[in-house]
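Example 9 (inverse folding). The structure is encoded as follows.
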């Protein structure tokens, strides 16, 4: 009788263990990554951003997707997604007739986008990822710190109404260009300061502007000035995030010339 009881118990344990292994395996081998909604992907931390509160961090623990993929779990990227020559190519998108592109990285792209939305002569803004090594990156890829992408705002502007120098002024005013890979508590290469130019004229203006800014600061500016590379538009919920209400549903004005303080995360 005792032998039968032990046998039944072991059989039950084996069945439970097998079920658990199947559950864990199926969880890790899901064909697509978890997509975080805006209300779930940002969490509050104490205010300490360069201009306002710091960017909320994901506060739960889970294995690195990069590590899981190397171990054979998680989604498998198509070969072209791993071809670094694609994202390192030039941004070959074409702006609207009579418009020009400009591209800047200055920390969390939400507040940076709103600042440029308010600049007279700017006709369109998009937030996205660039300067990285991974084709078609997701927000999760960029936040992993392994793709080398920068969070940027790509701007279309009318050069008859807005000079490139006006955009540079807005860029310098929006962030601290002396902190390497960091704005406030937002730490990581995706938050680096960068000016990504489309024409020789933009490059010249950017370098001259940096020299002028350096004369006004007692710390070295670490802003990178590089050719604009392929631009990957961020997920739709990131676009005009603060104008649409941010985390708390309080819409912030994008009216031209508005100088209301920008609440970094809503």
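The amino acid assigned to each position is listed next.
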């Amino acid at each position: 009788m005792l032998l039968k009881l032990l046998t039944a118990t072991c059989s039950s344990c084996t069945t439970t263990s097998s079920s658990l292994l199947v559950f864990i395996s199926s969880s890790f081998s899901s064909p697509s990554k978890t997509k975080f909604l805006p209300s779930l992907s940002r969490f509050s931390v104490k205010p300490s951003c360069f201009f306002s509160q710091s960017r909320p961090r994901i506060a739960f623990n889970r294995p690195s997707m990069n590590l899981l993929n190397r171990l054979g779990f998680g989604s498998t990227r198509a070969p072209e997604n791993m071809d670094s020559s694609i994202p390192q190519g030039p941004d070959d998108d074409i702006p609207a007739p009579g418009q020009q592109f400009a591209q800047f990285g200055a920390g969390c792209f939400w507040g940076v986008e709103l600042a440029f939305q308010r600049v007279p002569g700017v006709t369109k803004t998009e937030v996205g990822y660039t300067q990285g090594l991974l084709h078609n990156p997701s927000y999760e890829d960029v936040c992993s710190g392994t793709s080398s992408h920068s969070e940027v705002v790509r701007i279309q502007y009318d050069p008859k109404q807005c000079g490139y120098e006006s955009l540079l002024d807005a860029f310098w005013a929006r962030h601290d260009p002396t902190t390497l890979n960091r704005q406030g508590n937002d730490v990581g290469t995706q938050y680096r300061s960068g000016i990504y130019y489309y024409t020789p004229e933009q490059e010249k203006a950017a370098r001259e502007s940096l020299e002028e800014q350096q004369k006004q600061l007692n710390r070295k500016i670490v802003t990178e000035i590089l050719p604009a590379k392929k631009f990957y538009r961020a997920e739709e919920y990131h676009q005009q995030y603060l104008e649409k209400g941010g985390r708390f549903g309080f819409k912030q004005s994008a009216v031209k010339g508005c100088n209301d303080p920008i609440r970094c995360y809503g």
